[in-house]
Amino acid sequence: MNRRNALILLALLVLACLAPFQLAPFHTFQLSMAIVYAIALLGLNLLVGQTGQISLGHGAFLAIGAYSTAVMLDRWDTPHFATLPVAAAVTFVLGLALGVPALRLRGLYLALVTLAIAIFLVPLLKRFESVTGGSMGLTVSKPQPPEWTGLAEDQWLYFLALAVVLASFLFVAGVRRSRVGRALNAIRDHETAAEVMGVRPAHYKTLAFAWSAMLAGVAGCVYTWVIAYVSPDSFATALSITLLAGLVVGGLGSLWGPLLGGAFVMYVPSLAQDINQAAPGMVFGLLLIAVMYVAPTGLAGLAARVSGRLETLVRKGKTHAH
Fold it and tell me: Which CDD domains does the annotation name (predicted)?
């Protein structure tokens, strides 16, 4: 991470730490959910933005992480913090297992297979009622704030989500600037040329799929902490499609895109509902088209262009002053 990105991250962290003390509990909850989606999009960006593989089933990995956490809390009374590494490990292994056969597929074929996983998962969760609670889902407890913090429950959950997204962001930033990140970019740009240069596409694509699934599972775990309830209908196919749309709107391949995309996934559907309760899908689609027309490279790309123009104007002003 360069100095500029580090300064931006520090400024965002300061604002993020102040936010829950200025917002009402419901708005703090909404911000926590935007963070949950941002964690999932950080993983999806590794797969789609860095490696060039299209996934329409990422909501399924989020659901698996959420249900793994809920089952551990409900059936085995596992401590909340112990559920996070388990949810991460479960989805990493599943991502690894699915990543191997996915190597034979690319483009729309891979997209269709991942979409099929998302479609298949919801009835599967409903079928195993003794474990998953069926259509009724599972209600679990939320992590309670320690007394010494002096925080309300919604503030404590927000800071837990913030800590997890920060760790996820630093992990992804480290991957992007490492040898692995350069290999993933090479595979995305030209797989055959990358293979000629000694990059093993099969190894790196499988790893990207596993990491991507793991971060979605981590997001699912935090989702369960924040909402304290899971049901199959919360993870319908529309969630996977909305996540991909959020990533594209935020900025595909950008380090900051998932953070902006998480806000889009959280706030825009509810805004569409407020505008027209009869046809929120239509309003959401129109808003999506409008954003992509204004910012074809995503909101992160738009912000970079605006920042670049401002810097150019400042330099020209200094030149004229001299």
Answer: TM_PBP1_LivM_like
Task: Determine, yes or no, domain membership for 147.
Answer: yes
Q: Is residue 61 part of a domain?
A: yes
| Assigned token pair, 37 | 């989606």
Supply the pTM of this predicted model: 0.91
Q: What HEC string does 70-106 produce?
A: HHHHHHCCCCHHHHHHHHHHHHHHHHHHHHHHHCCCC
Question: How far from 169 is each of 13, 164, 173, 190, 284, CA to CA, in Å?
Answer: 12, 9, 6, 26, 28
Q: How many domains does the chain have?
A: 1
The answer to whether residue 5 is domain-embedded is no
In a domain, residue 181? The reply is: yes
CA pair distance 4, 304, nearest whole angstrom: 12
Question: Nearest to residue 199, comparing CAs of 212, 214, 210, 188?
Answer: 188
Residues 249-276: what's their mean pLDDT? 85
